[in-house]
Amino acid sequence: MMTISPAPSLVHAAFLAPRASKPKPTPTPTHGAASATAYAAGLTAYKRNDFASAIGQFGKAIGANPRLARAYYWRGLAHYALAQYSAAASDESTDLKLEPAYASAYFWRAKAYFRLGLYQAALDDYTRAIARDGKDEVSYVNRGLTRERLRDDAGALVDYTKALSLNPRDEVALVDRGTAHARLGQFTLAVTDYTGALKLDAKDEIAYFNRGYVYEAQHNYRGAFADYTRALALDPGDTLAYFNRGFAREGLKDYTGAIGDFSIYITRVPADGDGYLHRGLNRAALKLYTLARADLNKAVMLYKKSGAQTGLKEAQAALARLPAR
Fold it and tell me: What's the pTM?
């Protein structure tokens, strides 16, 4: 069997999911009837997910009382809900100028910074939020993922572990800690975390996917195949799961099945040379040399177009190994 490249990277549990959205209770303003009325209307609109109206009402409250800190806070949340991350960060910053000890404003500004790709700024704000509310496990989870974006996997592991000490049933923290373990090469610990997460939520597609990846790294191809299959049953649209399952099938010497999975991947991602490369390798394993040559030539063409030198070299080497026509 020809040598194949490693499977693609792990994926993360949903970051900044609704469970992490924790706006704190806030008092009704007392500085003027106009600001209080608009503020209350803004909260009502926000709670019914009418975020555009909420932004307008909070703007009216701010116009009537520019020092109404929580109006900036809630308007920032409404901006965030509409993916207006720069505006969200700006409003949370104004809130923090008026009430610098408000942990939740740091939390939400960190979320906005993360979405903007400002990972160090997000990390700093999560740290400030934790300093003011050290029992919020979600801040630790989100800071952990931010650390991973900054390539600090060891620090991320510490944060996920702290989150789990605060809430041992935090399924997202278990999945993300499993991913940190996997990135550090601690595969047995990663499997333990993914399995624990699946005990809490048997329909967690990402936990199955990532555990499948780790099983593959451990050469447990049967376990990997089973987990990718479960992931696909939960989410048939997971294109990467087909790609990874192709590797598991190859490890099981099910070359025909691998070809099928890579073919599905190719139909969905036709511009990626990896699909053609690996389908060609499996066709070669079945001595389907004409079809293998066609796939490998297609891979070479796509790799040249994309500038992917590693894949190009592998496809060219695989072509050179094929028997002469």
Answer: 0.84
